[in-house]
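Archive transcription. Copying these from loose printouts into the bound notebook so they stop getting lost. Printout 1 of 2:
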Amino acid sequence: MRALVGLICGLLIAAEACGDVAPPVQVMVLGTYHMDNPGLDLHNAKADDVLTRKRQAELAAVAEALAACKPTVIAIERVTPAPAYEDATFREFDGSQLASRRDERVQVGYRLARVAGLKTVHGIYEQPGPGEPDYFPFERVQAGVQRHGEDAALAAMMSRTGQLIADFERVQANSTVAELLIDANDPHTLADPSMYYEMLAFDAGEDQPGAELLGYWFMRNAKIFAKLMDVVEPGDRVVVLFGGGHKHWLEHLARNTPGFEVVDPVPYLRR
């Protein structure tokens, strides 16, 4: 057995020495808040107007700072068709849309792609199709909580998450977009994953809606990451622009998938 292990290690070292080991795909997951206020999440932070002159200058500075990582692929929170997952809307982008469209996919994703000189943006979002599960069955968790008389505990959990949103809204007036994005990438604020784990406490015996929600949410992010794997090559430098609630899971997948490594966006944003 030792001889076999030694042989394998020797082959790996030799392959690396000969340059046969493919360079990793570097993945920067940029968590963001929803700048156009679609109101589609369980908790929704109300963003101020990103079309003002001040915010546009700040967004331009963010794009320039992120472009320093020299991205070769940009992937955003949009559903597009397989196998290329190309965002056809980006083909029409010429920069003029920055004056009218508040969507962070445009204001950050498209803007960065243009600064980086990219011709394509990929949409790798996952929505359930026919026969696929609800990836966020929160109503089932609520029903289970009512069955077990744990309404107060759920309300307390929701209140803590709501306070994070309120704090984010409160600091907007005195924060730049870069500072707000740093907040959106903080695992203790908008990128805090603890709510998903806390839902396990509401399960009892075989009545496990919290575990099911956690599993389905992970499945959604795993499918998103699998789509990303379809559009990258070894050595690519990727910026993945998604809502802050996806950050923990997508980084977990990048950190634990062979051939991928995580790049922290915060040092770039601090510039």
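Printout 2 of 2:
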Amino acid sequence: MSKSELLNNISIGSWITLGHPAVAEIMAEAGFDWLAVDLEHSTITIREAEDLIRVIELKGVTPFVRLSSNNAEQIKRVMDAGAHGVIIPMVNSKTEAETAVSSVKYPPIGTRSFGLARAQKYGVDFDNYLEWQRNNTIVVVQIEHIDAVNDLAGILSVEGVDAYIVGPYDLTGSLGIPGQFDHPEFLSAMDRIREVGNDLGVAGGLHVVEPDPRELEACIRAGNRFVAYSLDIRILDVSCRTGLRHVIELR
């Protein structure tokens, strides 16, 4: 799926925290528009991330990497490994958003250093990649703190910030109401986020952590367009428990 298709339509992705290529292959075959290799809350190495990126891309799905932090060195390495874009946690200010974009783009747009790796087909396709990265790399900021909500217009107005995803657990935590997704303060923050995103024309959405199709549908009906639906370990866990629940009761 092209960058335009991802950002101008409803797109649904998911998180990968298990480092086996089969996980990426199964999820890519399931019909997700994009998949994010998660380096923030997993033990996945850069080497394993490259293998997962390769599988996702070869299956025709857009590969992202969710970083462990807004780190230029890590951004450079995952982009060179072939990621089409990055999802950056805890972007709380306009300055932090500018740093992220700069780390993804080569000069003169950004500050990413030049190198030859998988993304450039190990050197043979450098010129084409140089042109591709100008307009096709994707920067997704995670809005996970009330400080980010308060500076949201500044964050989303940064040229090169393409989309946002709300991290609901961390956002409620920053409000002092961890996990209370029906609390008026959280709902007010979500309304504010959607309002600013819509005003600036930036695609955005929510991470629906539990794999509940009803929650996914409600999220889309609420106006979210760039949606993360659960993650590999929650999908696996819920599927196993659901399948066994009634059988266990018969023992």
